[in-house]
């Protein structure tokens, strides 16, 4: 499953790497709402929450649907500005219809408010549908959706004020602490983009982001099948320290594609592609292969030994071993006339972590 961004005919200058204070603040707010996704930042989240004034904590609870499970598109800018205030000014320029639709996607569930469908601000049926979806997700979501649809200007002003209060409470200090890492990453990416091309720059972003061989599209390894186009305005890539391990992609119709990616750690473990995780899960789904792995977990074995241990024919064992090797769960080493198969314990041990990483991308 992949997300495809069509960049055919797009000038290279419209593929940009830049820093966004608002996108990083949104990543921080996600950490505060879902600290379990970011165990390395759990201490930071705990300290920030402990220091929040009750009024700000309440405001964050009111609006956390904008960044908890998915991000409102207007919080991940396609045209980043140097300061948070300038980016919030850009959000203020978005019309109510666009703002409300984006907010309702996060409030009512991803892709629930279809582009081109009747507006919930003007159509009674669409409004009731949006409220029903919000109600199904809980009373807080329902209350937020009701306020948003009844008085979008007031909700927008309150959300902006909440974000401004976050700047004073914790963002300014945290942003100062990560700005150097983000600037360093941007220098690397822009240097690669200039001297080696987009493919090299994307390769340094993540193994989950690749350029098609014909150079006409970018593929993001995500648990979804979707497509968007970057014609005209282009595509923006935003490095994030607080966003790890997520790859956030803005791809809704009407929005310029944006990819927020995690800045590489000093000694990063490269993410395993979703295709590899799927291969390994498929390989492990067969009971015969699980039996073979049980024996291989005790040490290297030949095909003949495995066939004898489980009363199987050597060709049948060979077929199952080929599937396991293709999935990267076994290694093979020839010793004289015999080939010994060995379980890759590191791959097996990491499978749960790899699956979680693929799901959370």
3D architecture notes:
With 361 residues, the protein is an alpha/beta fold. It is 53% helix and 13% strand. It has helices at 21-33, 42-51, 54-63, 84-92, 96-108, 124-136, 139-150, 152-195, 198-205, 274-284, 287-296, 303-310, 314-326, 345-360, and strands spanning 2-6, 15-17, 209-211, 217-221, 226-229, 235-240, 248-250, 258-262, 330-335, 338-343. A hairpin with a 7-residue loop joins strand 7 (248-250) and strand 8. Helix 7 (139-150) packs across helix 8, helix 10 (274-284) packs antiparallel against helix 13 and helix 12 (303-310) packs across helix 13 (314-326). It is elongated, with a radius of gyration of 24 Å.
Quick summary of this structure?
It contains 14 helices and ten strands. It has 361 residues and is an alpha/beta fold.
Structural class: alpha/beta
- Which assembly state applies to the chains in this document? single chain
Helical amount? 40-55%
Low-pLDDT parts are none
Strand content: 5-15%
Count of DSSP E strands?
A: 10
- End-to-end separation: 12 Å
User: DSSP helix count?
Assistant: 14
Please state the CA-atom Rg, rounded to the nearest Å: 24 Å
Largest sheet: 4 strands, mixed
| Major β-sheet strand ordering | 3-4-1-5
